UniProtKB/TrEMBL annotation:
The chain crosses the membrane at residues 7-25, 37-54. The keyword Transmembrane helix applies. Keywords: Membrane, Transmembrane, Transmembrane helix. This is ATP synthase F0 sector subunit C. It comes from the Bacteria.
Length: 60
């Protein structure tokens, strides 16, 4: 049970950090990312982290 809580906490931290990074890298004037290739990786991991958190919250 403790291991599962640590995993959920880790995914929360990852999701928050990636969300902030994606927000900072996005150029709202041109509607583009500063580094598009890196943004794709960030988005993929962010979506996975959010999916894991939603999936885990439905179990509880």
């Amino acid at each position: 049970m403790e291991n599962k809580k640590a995993l959920v906490f880790t995914f929360w931290i990852v999701a928050i950090i990636l969300g902030v990074v994606l927000f900072k890298q996005f150029d709202f004037e041109n509607l583009k990312f500063e580094k598009p290739a890196l943004a794709i990786i960030y988005i993929a991991v962010f979506i996975f982290a959010v999916y894991f958190l939603v999936k885990n919250s439905k179990k509880n």
